[in-house]
Amino acid sequence: MIGISLPFAPLGEVARPEPALLAFYRRFYHGLWLSAFAQAFSGEYDHNAWLLGPSSYLFAINGLRFGLDIRIDQPWITEDDRSDYADDLSKLDFMLLTHEHRDHYDASMLSLLKDTPVRWLIPAFFDRERVRAAGITPDRITWVEPGRTYPIGTLSIAAFDSPHVQVPETGYLMETGKARLLFPGDVRDYAQRLPDFGSVDCLFAHVWLGRGNAQGLPCEPWLSGFCDFVVAARPRRVFLTHLFEFGRDAANLWTYAHAGLAADSLLARDASLEIAIPRVGERVNMHKEAPYGAGKLAGVKP
Description:
Blueprint: H1 18-40, E1 48-53, E2 56-61, E3 64-68, H2 79-89, E4 94-96, H3 107-112, E5 119-123, H4 128-133, E6 141-144, E7 149-152, E8 155-161, E9 170-175, E10 180-185, E11 200-206, H5 222-232, E12 235-241, H6 256-269, E13 274-276, E14 283-285
Parallel strand pairs: 3-4, 4-5, 5-6, 10-11, 11-12, 12-13
Antiparallel strand pairs: 1-2, 1-14, 2-3, 7-8, 8-9, 9-10
Helix pairs in contact: 5-6
């Protein structure tokens, strides 16, 4: 057998983009946020989503505007902006939460929105005392149970247990009448499979290739596990997200290098997949008849 040395340099030897990205967000994020909300409420972008953070999503679907794991405690967001962003979030119809890790759950945001009409769909395993302490009235909270479906307008949201393993987590399948959208959340055990939902139009896949393994390119066996898990969900279009979580150490920071490895490996399994790696601030079209492509950044001006 001939040994082959893969041409991967340790990430520490490569110029890293985190400082430049953080500076970019500090300069342009406010414009990205304003553009996202302006587009979402314009009525011109049905079945679109905006990436407001590494794993924070804003949606405009069937006349509804809602969020999933939105946070306004990111390191590039100032206190003044938090207040402004809370005003924008108060216009949403509802918010979905998946689990209680701090990179997904901004508990302080609940307090900022306590006097607004926003409805909350919160997994039943959340710390209810902490949620109630935020001041949200019980009539605006739906405690989500796996295996149940929650109709909101013309949208149907099915909740399921997602294999995070480290903590309880709820994933969601959204059926809109025009698309089937799957959000498994932060999966850590790729040997487990999701319920058989049939094929889906869009899968939002959070990149994770092993605890403490980010610099061990090509990150096997987790890379293969991740890609097998994604393909098993039978998506037509895959959005690779959960990248550049500032505050993580280098051994646990997932970047475009890892998403690129995943994209290559996914295409090797199924070359018909449409794969996009959206950036924070980018709009993506989720309609099943949408043309190929992830969308574009809006609101960035030199």
